[in-house]
């Protein structure tokens, strides 16, 4: 080798070493990283390098956790490099960290102009924070955590400076393939009562979390204390900064909270570097900022969802009736402010309590106890409401009350100020109620005795001689005023809507009658359940369904619109579900292709939320008793609605378990304690939910059997493969995607916990929902499930054959005696 060749080789080696040195966690002056090389943190969890988003050829410098599908920060988000341009990141001559294109043109820089050392070092820390250090002093002159992109990660300080007004803003990507600054952002506002605000185009609020109470944001019911474990609001007195920060419980866990291009919060959790859950925080109309206007309250449990607060009326009645509620409400009568004497009568303003409320915006915090809080608000003529939370203290409001939401559970009590006239109206109602209650009890007792007698008379009559639905309801003391609770449709109206119950409009047929699609004169589509005229048993269950479902309102429960009663014609009218029932799509080899994993998980979550509402959050505690895939209806967006409440059982407030001599339900979905002993508890529905989980994930019916001798049920098949760590064989090939396998395995795990043989070992639905949302990260190991083989299920069937002939999955059992 000649001298020239030797020198050239040494130069190449030196340059190569300069680039290779970037494989450590630092970049020093003279070193660089060139695409596709990366910088790796000391714990190997984070990398700094160039990446391309999905469906994009542009290149960006970013930091990611484990893989570039988990990007937490982007440098040149608004100035991408073309794929043909090889990017480089290095320390510039003035000490800034810069990204250069192939022409050595800077497309991004830390852009420090003062207090900058020309001898700087860039380092990727084990937290994922990229810092620029002054080599002489060792001080940090710049850090990526102070300039976040779309993600909030542990150790990052997300907050605002009270002195300078500077705020750290997290901003969404423009789209999944474009990391440039998007339309949505979030900041931490109101340092005295910190809460997260979400903005559209940085100026228009579209959602807020409610104030922080040392455990949770009280206006975000999905953020339970378990979910927010590790999050805390800190106050840096020296820096005059209030910030939200997250501390990991231990090094085995890691979490990322991102703001996606649709303005939704996405939470992802890892355990031992394995993704265990990714959850999208869904928003409803009531979550939108100020949806019902000033002095309006929004509740997804009510219809319409907007209403004026007590003592207020719509500001624009015409717009309000059009369901344009943004103009809000105004007082019906002005406040009095202070005591007024009229003869011997002294009157003054007072307060009405609203429960389970997301408190309004523009709160002012005072250092008073609860009783003092009320007194202080009453003394100030400008104070229109107050609330007290043990984690926040006294909160008061003046001016408009904006962005109020009523929850099914959670929130706080809000006390709104009203004039004496409103208090007098309330007092009159209470007096009226005191009179009504004893009269009602007397009438109810007489009615109940009559019901018992008529029921006995009815059960002794031939099956074909049935009472009308109107007679059955009018004699039930729970439905004295049917017209007030449920609209009545005329028979002629439903005949016209269904084209005289034409067979072309028949959606399905069951033991108690047929269901037809219909269209009312106003174009509204409906589903009509027409009860068979000879089905006495079906009439009773039809009446039970009316009594139950007319009291329930939830987005994941089918909505009963009304009924029709004419002689022997008894019909129920429901909202129409264009995608019919889940089994129609799930078990169809062609249609099931439309059910990818995100859609299936949305269905699973929706069913769980509906059951939780029935068991815990509704006015009544309801056990469904016949939860199965054909009783899950799907709307136009494939959102699930639990239907068919004919078998439902209403529990008293403190009841946990009861016995029944009439076992109803569908084989395969019934747990052993119910099928054999007639024990009814919420664990019955939990078991059925576990079966549903396996059916949704596997795409197979519970009535299917497996193994070489056809002796194993779907439950046993899943249990066997779970223990053999071959869970992939359970998963429907249509959703067998490596990106989702961890989420699917977790759902199977939850399903097996719901299917455990002993009811006491099964979780309640509140726990199941927390597991699905990964509020509970570590799941216990499930024990042996019930009914794992065909012989056990067959024995359950054969023990009932003297009563009625059934199939395993398609027919609901309605006349069995519990042992």
From TrEMBL:
Residues 795-819 are annotated as: Disordered. It is found in: Cell membrane. It is a single-pass type I membrane protein. It comes from the Eukaryota. It catalyses: L-seryl-[protein] + ATP = O-phospho-L-seryl-[protein] + ADP + H(+); L-threonyl-[protein] + ATP = O-phospho-L-threonyl-[protein] + ADP + H(+). PROSITE patterns: BULB_LECTIN, PAN, PROTEIN_KINASE_ATP, PROTEIN_KINASE_DOM, PROTEIN_KINASE_ST. ATP binds at residue 529. The keyword Manganese does not apply. GO terms for molecular function: ATP binding; carbohydrate binding; protein serine kinase activity; protein serine/threonine kinase activity. Residues 501-787 form the Protein kinase domain. SUPFAM superfamilies: alpha-D-mannose-specific plant lectins, Protein kinase-like (PK-like). One of its GO terms (cellular component) is plasma membrane. Residues 1-22 form the signal peptide. Keywords: ATP-binding, Cell membrane, Disulfide bond, Glycoprotein, Kinase, Lectin, Membrane, Nucleotide-binding, Receptor, Serine/threonine-protein kinase, Signal, Transferase. Residues 24-145 form the Bulb-type lectin domain. GO terms for biological process: innate immune response; recognition of pollen. Its EC number is 2.7.11.1. Residues 337-419 form the Apple domain. SMART domains: B_lectin, PAN_AP, S_TKc. InterPro entries: Bulb-type_lectin_dom (IPR001480), Bulb-type_lectin_dom_sf (IPR036426), Kinase-like_dom_sf (IPR011009), Pan_app (IPR003609), Prot_kinase_dom (IPR000719), Protein_kinase_ATP_BS (IPR017441), S_locus_glycoprot_dom (IPR000858), Ser-Thr/Tyr_kinase_cat_dom (IPR001245). Pfam families: B_lectin, PAN_2, PK_Tyr_Ser-Thr, S_locus_glycop. Belongs to the protein kinase superfamily. Ser/Thr protein kinase family. This is Receptor-like serine/threonine-protein kinase. It comes from Glycine soja (Wild soybean).
